[in-house]
Design goal:
2 domains; 337 residues; 35% helix; elongated; TIM Barrel; 14 strands; eight-stranded parallel β-barrel
């Protein structure tokens, strides 16, 4: 439920209301707006306490949230959430570009890639230290060594770093090196992991599971936000359908749908969505036109030598050209890159 408080209410009155909410076994989440203060109320059977909450001093209205996902819904927060990632604002007017290799294979390749994507205008460096692979014999990532390389690349370029965390036991070490925690498609409903990153203070990129509905995706975000971490954003990376011409089917529909249903930012990952180098640019542009707050693209200086996903990695010169095209589309829809 959403409790809207009366104008002019003071801190002591707000504290008294939150104490009363807790007595009902519910959890209050206070948000101070320019004009009004609202309190989101989360808990089992919270609707049973609606009349009692309405009677509290200082309460103006109590509005039920009908969606099963509460705090991530547009009902909970009307304005778009903007996440500050080391000075990069995600969810505002600027379309944020994430770029880098699928996995960190060598220090030399990562540093070269980081310098090149920075030069082309990327805002955030991506790179996998731990890699979930379909085959147990495929390259699984260099672990902490790769995390150290990413931290070095951040120092070299000033770009914040995003990398995937696959297990609750990895959260602490990834938080030590990375600026954004990525939850990959295979872990989109790993609820223990979602709860764990929800207790961290790092922004979380939540990728859509390859067979997740949009509501399931929103519910996964709710697991994170309910644990106290509100800096969550969605990443559409394609879903599994009957089509085999591309790696997955990129669901462009998901972008305006998420923007309508949730206040959280959403970005697009065309590299994983199609898995074909020649198609990545077109899907990136379509994502921006559809309202995506960011684009994540795989870039590698030597794709033929990449230890994972080389066929979908752009060469730096190709990425530079795509950046120019993305700037044009962003400008056409009233945004910047």
């Amino acid at each position: 439920m959403i409790i809207t408080l009366k104008s002019g209410i003071n801190k002591k009155q707000v504290d008294n209301i939150t104490k009363s909410i807790k007595k009902f076994g519910l959890t209050p989440h206070v948000s101070h707006g320019a004009v009004k203060t609202i309190i989101g109320v989360i808990g089992a059977n919270e609707h049973k306490h609606k009349q009692q909450l309405e009677s509290l001093e200082g309460v103006e209205t109590v509005t039920p949230i009908l969606k099963p996902y509460k705090m991530v819904s547009r009902e909970f927060k009307k304005d778009n959430t903007v996440i500050d990632i080391k000075g990069v604002k995600l969810g505002g007017q600027q379309v944020v570009v994430f770029a880098g290799p699928c996995s960190v294979d060598t220090r030399e390749n990562l540093m070269t890639c980081a310098r090149e994507v920075k030069k082309s205008g990327a805002h955030i460096l991506r790179g996998g230290a731990f890699k979930p692979r379909t085959s147990p014999y495929a390259f699984q990532g260099h672990g902490e060594t790769a995390l150290k390389y990413l931290a070095e690349a951040r120092k070299l370029t000033g770009l914040p770093v995003v990398t995937e965390v696959m297990d609750t036991r990895q959260v602490e070490i990834v938080c030590k090196y990375a600026d954004i925690l990525q939850i990959g498609a295979r872990n989109g409903q790993n609820f223990d992991l979602l709860r764990e990153v929800g207790q961290s203070k790092k922004p979380v990129m939540l990728k859509r599971g390859m067979a997740n509905t949009i509501e399931e995706w929103l519910m996964s975000a709710e697991y994170i936000v309910a644990k106290g971490n509100r800096n969550v954003f969605f990443c559409e990376r394609g879903i599994r359908t009957f089509e085999t011409a591309t790696r997955f089917t990129m669901d462009i529909n998901a972008i305006p749908t998420i923007k309508h249903l949730s206040h959280l930012p959403v970005i697009i990952d065309p590299s994983h969505g199609v898995g074909v180098r020649d198609y990545i640019g077109s899907i990136a542009l379509a994502g921006i036109a559809a309202g995506a707050d960011g684009v994540m693209v795989e870039v590698h200086p030597k794709p033929t030598e990449a230890l994972s996903d080389g066929p979908q990695a752009l060469l730096p010169v190709m990425f530079d050209s795509l950046m120019n095209e993305m700037r044009k589309v962003a400008l056409a829809v009233g945004r910047t890159i």
